[in-house]
C-alpha cells in the first residue's frame, strides 16, 4: 500500500441523520480505506487510507450519497476558504426549488374545497376526486416515492421514505385520500423546517468558532498587500489594524494596543500588549496599529489547532450517541413488526374490520422513524463542545464531555496549577565560607541549563554569574535536582531527597517555602528559599467544586511537606501528597482510581503528561499556545484559571440534561401516539407530529445550549 493519508470532504445538503449513517456505512466498504467517519454536525466526512484512493474519492462518495439521498453534494474540503459555508438560499430561490410542493399543495386544497361543495357531491365527484388527489400526492411526495423505490431495489426497507410511502399508499388503499395527501404534505413541510433547523444549529455552532482571519496584511517592500494567511511563511512581517483579527501567531515588533482574547480564552477583559510580546492568531486588535513578525505557519497556529480540535471532536462519540445509533437500528424494524401484528391479529382473532386495524398499523409506520434522536443527540454534544470552546475550554470529543458528568474525584498538581508558578528567591542562607551572594551565583551556575521554573528564578535573581566551561559536566536528576562538575569539583543543588541520597547532613528547613539545598564535594553549603504564591482564582475554583458536591479533592506535589500542607490548608483541600517523584505521582493516581466514578487530573500539560494520560480524564491548564498540553490532555483549558473546571462541569451537565430531555421526550411522545392509535384515538396527523414535529422540538431544545 502507498503512504497513508487523511482527507476531509464537505457534504452539502445533508439534513437527514439516518441518511448520514447509511452513507458512512457504505463508504466504509470502499477498498483501500482504513477509517471513515461522517460528522453529521459539521457536515464533513473524514477518510484515511491509501493516499491515491483517499485523494480521489469525490465521485465515489457522490455516487453513494446519490443512491441514498438526493440533493447531497460531495466536494473536497477547500482549505483556502475562511470557513465551511452552508447552503443558504433566498426565499425566491427556495420557493423555486420547492415549486412542485407548492403546486401540489394548491391542487390538494382545491380538491379538498371541492369535496366539501354540495354541487360536486353528485356522480361527477367520484370521477374527479381520485385524479386530483393523486396529482397532488405525486407532486408533493415524489422525492419520497423516488427514494423509496431506489431503496427497495437495494433491499433497504426500514427507512423513513419507505415507511412514509407504505403508510400513505395504504391510506389510498382504504379510500382515505385527503388524509394520505395531507400526511405527505405535512411530512414534507416538516422536513423543510427540519432542514432549516439543522442548518441553523450548525450555523450557530460554527459562528462560535468564527475565529480565523480572512486575510493578512503582508508587508512586501514598501507595500502592504492582502494575502491568504495560509500562504505566509515564518519570519514575514504583517500589519494588524484596529478592529482586525490577528491571522497568525507572532511577536510584536512595533506598536502597542489592547487585544480581545475572548474567542480563545473566554476572558472578557482586554489584554494590553506592547513591542516584544507574543500574540496568538484569533485575538482581535482593538485600538492601535501593530506590526508583527510571524513565528508559526498557519497549519501550526493556535487558531488552526483549536478549529481542528473542535471540528474533529464529533468523531469521538459519547456512549449515549453510540447507544442511540445502535438503538435506532433495532427500533424501526421492531415497530414495523408491531405494526404488522396490529394490522393482522385483531381481524384474524376477533373478526374486526380489516380497514380499521390496517389504518392503525399505518400510524405505527409513520411514528417508527427515530430521526428526532439521531439528529438531535450528535448536534447536542457538538453544541456543548462549541459552547465550551467559547469559554476557552477545548474538549476533544463528546465522550470526554459526557465523562465530565461522572467525575467525583479531582486531583490537582500544585505548582503552576493551584499556585502561580512564578517563583522568586525569598532568602539565601549560607552555612559555609561562601557569602550569600556567592552561594546564589554558584546555584545559578549549577542551574543555568535547566528550564525548571525554580532554576529560572535562581538564574534571574543572580543576574550575572560565571558560565560553565566547555569541559563542565551536568546531570539533571528527575524529581531531585542537579548534579554538576565544575572546575574539578562535584556540586549538588536540589531538594532534601537529593542530599539524603548522597549522605549529606544538612540543616533541615521547615518554613512554608520551596527549599533548594547546595553541597560541594559532599559538604553542605547552605540553602535558598523559593516562594510561590497561590492564585486568587484557586480559592474560587475549590469553592465552586465543593458547591457542586465534588468534595474528594487531592493535591499532588514534589515540593516539601510543610509547603504542601500550607497550600492545602489555605485552599481547603483535605488530602495532599508531598515530595513525590514523577513516577510516584502516577502510582498515586493509580491508587486513587476506582470503578465507581471518574478521576480527573489537572496539571500544566508539559511536565505532567504521563499522569494526564493515566487518569480517567486529563485536564491541561494554562495551555494557550502549548503544543505539549494540547497533545497530552483530553480537555484543555486555554487560560491558567482552575475555576474553568467548574465551568466545564456546568456545560457538561447542561448538555447531558438537554440530550436526555430529547431522548425522553421523543420516546414518550412516540409511545403515547402508538398506544392511542391502538385504541383508535390517534390519527396520522398525530403520527406526523410524533415524527417530524418531535424532531423539530428536539432541535429547538438543542439550540438552548448555544444561548448560554
Automatic annotation (TrEMBL):
Its main location: membrane. GO terms for molecular function: ATP binding; ATP hydrolysis activity; metal ion binding; P-type cadmium transporter activity. It catalyses: Cd(2+)(in) + ATP + H2O = Cd(2+)(out) + ADP + phosphate + H(+). PROSITE patterns: ATPASE_E1_E2 (PS00154), HMA_2 (PS50846). Its EC number is 7.2.2.21. It is an enzyme of class 7 (translocase). The chain crosses the membrane at residues 101-120, 132-149, 330-349, 361-388, 659-679, 685-706. It is a multi-pass membrane protein. SUPFAM superfamilies: Calcium ATPase, transduction domain A (SSF81653), Calcium ATPase, transmembrane domain M (SSF81665), HAD-like (SSF56784), HMA, heavy metal-associated domain (SSF55008). The keyword DNA repair does not apply. GO terms for cellular component: plasma membrane. Coiled coil: none annotated. Belongs to the cation transport ATPase (P-type) (TC 3.A.3) family. Type IB subfamily. The keyword Glycoprotein does not apply. Keywords: ATP-binding, Cadmium, Cell membrane, Membrane, Metal-binding, Nucleotide-binding, Translocase, Transmembrane, Transmembrane helix. Pfam families: E1-E2_ATPase, HMA, Hydrolase. It is found in: Cell membrane; Membrane. It comes from Halanaerobium hydrogeniformans (Halanaerobium sp. (strain sapolanicus)). This is Cd(2+)-exporting ATPase. Residues 5-72 form the HMA domain.
